[in-house]
């Protein structure tokens, strides 16, 4: 039991602590969200659901908090509440907000033309940097978003292998084109059997005919995958996956699972696509493929690549990628490889690999100890 004096001391210490927290401008008590609320109501009158991407309102009941600026690791909302930003724009801001290297790279490039509409030396330079970092990147092709990168990769795989179906896993998200919007969520009540999971469209509006081009498999289950691939081998062009599942909470691949998938793909002459939009330039300099030592045939990168600028890349085997070109495999986009985003990517990759990839080094035990305080 506390004595009365001890209880009073504990209480006054707690009060003092709270006052110190309130006094520190970086840790205010979050009490007021009125401007976020009012602005969201206005947004709903002009933008469908009040946002340009469903995830920005989905699961933000009763209304989303709206940010007005960010610097480094912090963001400020419309009501002047300040936060440590763990959202980091869904993974894009690997260097935080308004990193000086990115700000100056974009500013300098804007003064020399945001986009030139031709191949540029900067494009070759960033491609070379990616090749030096990503183990399977024998060639590189730029686009703007993760959605575009996976869409292009799927088409490249289909054209190269000459089959139409794509195998994707339950719970994996690969962007917003129809070919991959199946079983992004697989609620257990309708998920089906392990060896023949239900195929669940994520939205209305996806043609039935597209569903016929998609085969669903359970992830992290080698035996189930082998059965599904064997059954559909004559039709499957590629297996696509997030090598670390980040879109259904973070689920690591079981030991040697990625190696087993690589073997299954090789045994049935099916291409393996790693969607490294979340893991790329984050898990290791060369993404999950470097971290786990498994080389896919094609890979997709976005998010961290541009440190906040919209740029993406498809990379892969030279014999596959070199089939892209006029009259062969189609690839295009007005904004692909634009100089402004390439400048941001160059700055981001330079910062990430500074001092022998220091940003990726595992922390020492003494650093871990100091973080506990
Ligand atoms: C694994 C993965 N792939 C693809 C995408 C699509 O990328 P984007 O939103 O840039 O189109 C995302 C986006 O969250 C993703 O997490």
Q: Could you tell me the CATH topology label of the largest domain.
A: Aspartate Aminotransferase, domain 2
Helix percent band: 25-40%
**Beta-strand fraction estimate:** 5-15%
The CATH C-level class name of the largest domain: Alpha Beta
Protein structure class:
alpha/beta
Question: What strand order characterises the main sheet?
Answer: 4-12-11-10-9-5-8
Please state the CA-atom Rg, rounded to the nearest Å.
Answer: 24 Å
Largest sheet: 7 strands, mixed
Bound molecules: pyridoxal-5'-phosphate
Query: Which architecture of the largest domain does the CATH hierarchy give at level 2?
Result: 3-Layer(aba) Sandwich
Tally of DSSP β-strands: 12
Overall 3D form: globular
- Euclidean distance between termini CA atoms: 28 Å
Low-confidence parts lasting 5 or more residues at pLDDT below 50? Answer: none
Looking at CATH, the homologous superfamily of the largest domain is Type I PLP-dependent aspartate aminotransferase-like (Major domain)
**N-to-C SSE string, H for helix and E for strand:** HHEEEHHHEHEEEHEHEHEHEEHHH
Number of helices: 13
Total domain modules: 2
Which whole number gives the mean pLDDT?
91
Structure report:
The chain contains 13 helices and twelve strands. It is globular, with a radius of gyration of 24 Å. It has helices spanning 4-23, 34-46, 88-91, 100-110, 121-133, 146-161, 208-211, 222-232, 257-267, 287-292, 318-321, 339-357, 365-372, and strands at residues 67-71, 74-77, 82-84, 139-143, 165-169, 192-193, 196-197, 214-217, 236-241, 271-275, 298-301, 312-316. It folds into two domains: 22-86, Alpha-Beta Complex (Aspartate Aminotransferase, domain 1), CATH 3.90.1150; 111-355, 3-Layer(aba) Sandwich (Aspartate Aminotransferase, domain 2), CATH 3.40.640.10. The protein has a seven-stranded mixed sheet, sandwiched between helices. It has a three-stranded antiparallel sheet with strand order 1-2-3, with no helix packed on it. By secondary structure, it is of the alpha/beta class. Bound molecules: pyridoxal-5'-phosphate. Pyridoxal-5'-phosphate (PLP) binds at residues 90, 145-147, 150, 173-176, 242, 247, 275, 277-278, 302.
């Amino acid at each position: 039991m506390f004595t009365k004096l001890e209880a009073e001391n504990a209480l006054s210490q707690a009060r003092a602590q709270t006052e110190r927290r309130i006094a520190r401008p970086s840790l205010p008590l979050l009490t007021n969200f009125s401007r976020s609320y009012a602005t969201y109501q206005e947004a709903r009158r002009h933008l469908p659901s009040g946002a340009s991407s469903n995830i920005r309102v989905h699961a933000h009941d009763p209304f989303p908090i709206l940010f007005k600026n960010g610097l480094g690791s912090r963001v400020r909302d419309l009501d002047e509440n300040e936060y440590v930003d763990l959202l980091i724009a869904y993974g894009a801001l690997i260097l935080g907000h308004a990193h000086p290297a990115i700000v100056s790279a974009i500013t300098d490039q804007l003064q020399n033309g945001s986009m030139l509409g031709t191949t540029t030396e900067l494009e070759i330079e960033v491609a070379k940097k990616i090749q030096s970092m990503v183990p399977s990147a024998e060639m590189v092709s730029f686009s703007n978003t993760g959605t575009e990168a996976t869409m292009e990769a799927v088409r490249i795989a289909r054209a190269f292998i000459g089959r139409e179906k794509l195998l994707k896993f339950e719970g994996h998200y690969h962007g917003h084109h129809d070919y991959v919007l199946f079983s992004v969520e697989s609620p257990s009540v309708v998920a089906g059997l392990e060896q023949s999971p239900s195929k669940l469209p994520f939205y209305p509006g996806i043609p039935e005919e597209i569903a016929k081009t998609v085969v669903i498999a359970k992830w992290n289950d080698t035996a189930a995958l082998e059965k599904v691939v064997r059954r559909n081998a004559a039709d499957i062009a590629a297996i696509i996956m997030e090598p670390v599942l980040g879109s259904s909470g973070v689920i690591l691949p079981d030991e040697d699972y990625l190696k087993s998938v690589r073997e299954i793909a090789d045994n049935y002459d099916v291409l393996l696509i790693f969607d490294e939009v979340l893991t790329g330039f984050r898990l290791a300099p060369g993404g999950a493929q470097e971290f786990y030592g498994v080389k896919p045939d094609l890979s997709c990168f976005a998010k961290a690549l541009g440190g906040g600028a919209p740029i993406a890349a498809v990379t892969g085997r030279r014999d596959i990628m070199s089939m892209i070109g006029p009259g062969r495999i189609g690839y295009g986009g007005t904004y692909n490889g634009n100089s402004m985003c390439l400048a941001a990517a160059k700055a981001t990759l330079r910062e990430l690999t500074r001092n022998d990839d220091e940003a990726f080094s595992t922390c020492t035990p003494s650093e871990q100890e100091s973080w506990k305080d």
